[in-house]
Amino acid sequence: MSITEDKVVRRKIRVWGIVQGVGFRPTVYRLAIERQLSGFILNNGQGVYIEIEGGLSAADSFITALKTDAPPLSRIDRVSVDSMPLQNDGEFVITSSDTVDLDSISISPDKGVCSHCMEETFTAGNRHYQYPFTNCTHCGPRYSLVRQLPYDRPWTSMADFAMCPACAEAYGNPLDRRYHAQPVSCNYCGPEIRFTDSSGNLLANRDKALMHAVAALKDGKIVAVKGIGGFHLMCDATNEEVVARLRAGKRRLRKPLAVMVNSLEMAASLAVIDPLEQEILESPERPITLLQKRLELALAESIAPGVPWLGVMLAYSPLHYLLMESLKFPLVATSANVSGMPIATRFSQVIEQLGQHIDYVLDHNRNILHACDDSVVQVAGGRRQVLRLGRGYAPLVMPLEQAVDKPLLALGVQQKNSIALARGKQMVVGPYQGDLDSLEMEASFSRHLNDIEQLFEIEPATVISDKHPHYITTRMAQDLSKERSLSHLQVQHHHAHILAVMAEHRLTGEVLGFAFDGTGYGDPSPDGKDGNTGVIWGGEVLLVDIRQAKRCHYLKPFRLIGGERAIKEPARILLGLLLEYYSLDEIKALDLPAFKGKPASWLNNLYKVWQSPGLSPLTTSMGRMIDGWASLLGLVDTVDFEGECGLRLEAAAIDAVISSHPEARFNLSSDGVIQWHRLLDWAIDQRTRKTTGHCAVILLTAIARMIGDIAHCYPNHSVVVSGGVFQNRILMNNLAMLFQSKKRSLLTSEQLPPNDGGISAGQLWHGLMSGACQD
Ligand SMILES: [Zn+2]
Ligand SMILES: [Zn+2]
Fold first, then answer.
1. pLDDT tops 90 at residue 566
2. Omega before 26 cis (within 30°)?
């Protein structure tokens, strides 16, 4: 290259996105050194600021490489490049950060161990050999150990460990992949594991602790293992006896348990894995991935009884790999808490909650500052669905076009709670918190709210909640708004469901939204037809924009006999459906399996309860309709976990061959009500003639067809579906096919949960776009 071609230039470059705490500066340093560029890089409130000086072609190639060679955990949202006068600085340096303005800094979620670190962990003689906490800038924990920003070692739970000379060298060397990796540590200087019995008596330390844990698992014992975001209960997933014991301890009858494996081969021996599922399974996020079970499943029967899916995750930390190395079987890996209680992050919590139900504890001395459950992901209708946003994905950061002047905080809802916030040029969705139904969960939510406000240094000007008067989050929002004189916005549940999908796809115009879920507090109808207060929605078709939702269609209401109790006893829901159209005598004559074995007084009593609107509120819920069908088909008697009826219906439907039944469909009446009389009639008439699977699949097909029919009437609207009902794979597969054949796009959430876990993001989108964030 001639000198004339390669004239010397200087460029200033700004990079926005996830560029801090992910090894961005060493990468930039290497790229600059390789091209003999001089200048500097620093972190600042804008993200990353770089100046380079050198040959034009080297500078251009540097700018290209910034994007193509960015470190794996980084995410570049935007780059700006400007020319500037030459400075002749002679070398390239990493300059210490400006005072940190937190507007565009974010915290990376925890990530699974990378291949380089794995190699070191299994190489004898390496200082990371058999070290359970090996990590680098490309992998390992982040969110779970940050106390405050900026993300720097003194502000993490690694502050308790002084680096040995070798680790300090790596930490300080811009060409090392551990340069400024805050959790950097090794066998000589980092956290240690310990093995105790369930009373807390120390049995072994370090590598001996590992050997003891392996032996205990082989011996059919239950071991609580401290991971990255919390403790797991672990045991041999092929041993029926120990799995049953673990279920009793957790007080979970049938809810599917996830298993951990140490290789793709082991996963493939348990389940059918398609390429997209494999990609998810092996990604650095390492979520629990729901896969279709193999029929000849070599696991204990009670791992996931009666459902076609198996939750599988690959080991994600060196500790797990070391543990599994000599085990030739998959492990149950379920969060260490009793059903309805917060996930345990400290030894004392494990002992308190589960002491009498576990045999041993494999603990370590690095504090978990923020609990984070495992994420759960599935592929439905050909696309990814995050069912639980936790370790690996959360906090989920989404860039905003415009900075907000006034921070917003959205508190989400009661079930599958998550918190979302907007500050600077970002919206952030926090990790899954669970159902806030107990005092312990309420307290845990309160602590999490404090943590989030501190961690992100946010003083919200507006707080957003659901409209449900009895949700803890609604009450908390009211209290906050009073105490701190904040404005308080309330967004209707199903409106927020649709808004969450709009947030993910950055939509602000009017869309046609199908919000089908279990239950949510509805708006009173203007004509008062469905009662004015406490209307339980869940089968709504809404014309939604940022500000408002107009209900254009809804499922014909039916009564939930005895209110909430019906959710546990789907036979009550079935009876509520039937009583809309049949007399009690007609129902008795049907001789349905759901009512068999019940005393004669049972139907009569429930009939009386049904007649009292105070005890049996009306609902339009599609989720509850599915529950009623599962009962009609004799699939579920008592519900053990939320969504069980839907899963059982899926299990029944999965292999059913379906012939078309034009009469088995929902009908739309002129006032917008979605009528289900004919569909129910068909099922009652056909249930003895057709297989259970056939009847199950008919309902799911009818829902898809109804959505298609309604969408047909709104040809110019984007179609959005959201709510727990759309976690049903058969429904999603049907919808995907239907919309493809009509050449119409169907929008759902892929990064955010379609269930209530995504609602905080929808609430936030309303606040952001309706102007609550601007001065
Ligand atoms: Zn690594
Ligand atoms: Zn060290």
1. yes
2. no
Min mean pLDDT across 275-279, 409-413, 530-534, 719-723 is at 530-534
> What are the Cα distances from residue 247, in Å, to 30, 261, 298, 314, 651?
52, 20, 19, 22, 22
The candidate with the shortest Cα–Cα distance to 550, out of 528, 525, 533, is 525
User: What confidence category does residue 688 fall into, taking pLDDT thresholds of 50, 70 and 90?
Assistant: confident
Q: How confident is the model at residue 148 (pLDDT cuts 50, 70, 90)?
A: confident
Question: Strands (DSSP E) along 631-714, which ranges?
Answer: 667-668, 673-675
For residue 116, the ligand closest to its alpha carbon is 1
Ligand closest to the CA atom of residue 134: 1
Listed residue (345, 320, 330) closest to 300, CA to CA: 330
Ligand 2 centroid – CA 433 distance (Å): 34
Q: In this structure, which ligand is nearest to the CA of 117?
A: 1
Does pLDDT of 1 surpass 50?
no
Measured N-to-C along each axis, helices 622-632 and 692-712 cross at an angle, to the nearest 10 degrees, of 160
Q: Categorize the per-residue pLDDT at 457 as very low, low, confident or very high, splitting at 50, 70 and 90.
A: confident
The alpha carbon of residue 367 and the mean position of all alpha carbons in its chain are separated, in whole angstroms, by 23
- Distance from the alpha carbon of residue 128 to the mean position of ligand 2, in angstroms: 8
CA of 321 to the centre of ligand 1 (A): 14
Q: Minimum mean pLDDT among 456-470, 531-545, 547-561: which range?
A: 531-545
Q: Which of 493-497, 695-699, 760-764 has the lowest mean pLDDT?
A: 695-699
Q: How far is the CA of 325 from the centre of ligand 2 (A)?
A: 23
Q: How many helices (H) and strands (E) does the chain have?
A: 23, 32
Going from the Cα of 98 to the center of ligand 2, the distance in angstroms, rounded, reads 28
Structure tokens at 165: 């000379």
User: Which tokens go with 397?
Assistant: 């950061």
Q: How far is CA 614 from CA 531, 560, 617, in A?
A: 11, 11, 6
Would you state the structure tokens that stand for residue 99, as one six-digit string?
């005072």
Report the alpha-carbon distance of residue 497 to residue 412 in Å, rounded.
Answer: 11
Query: What local confidence, expressed as pLDDT, does residue 424 receive?
Result: 86
Measured in Å, residue 168 CA sits from the centre of ligand 2 at 7
In angstroms, the CA 294 to CA 155 distance is: 46
Point out the ligand nearest to the CA of residue 140: 1
**Residue 261 · residue 281 · CB < 8 Å:** no
Sign of CA dihedral 741, 745, 746, 748: positive
3-class secondary-structure state, position 78: strand
User: Tell me: the pLDDT tens digits for 632-676?
Assistant: 999 999 999 999 999 999 999 987 877 778 788 999 999 999 999
**Protein residues near ligand 1, an ion, with CB under 5 A:** 114, 117, 136, 138-139
CA distance 410 to 488: 10
Instruction: Quote the ligand 1 centre to 310 CA distance (angstroms).
Output: 29
264-274 pLDDT tens trace: 999 999 999 99
Two structure tokens written together for 730: 């058969």
Cα distance between residue 274 and residue 268, in whole Å: 10
Q: Which helix (H) or strand (E) holds 236?
A: strand 231-236
AA letter at 377? V
Q: What is the DSSP string of 415-444?
A: SSB--EEEETTEEEEPPP-B---SHHHHHH
Q: Which residues, at least 6 apart from 163, have a Cβ–Cβ distance to it below 8 Å? A: 171, 184, 185, 189
Element (H, E) at 289: strand 288-293
Q: Give the mean model confidence (pLDDT) for residues 549-572.
A: 95
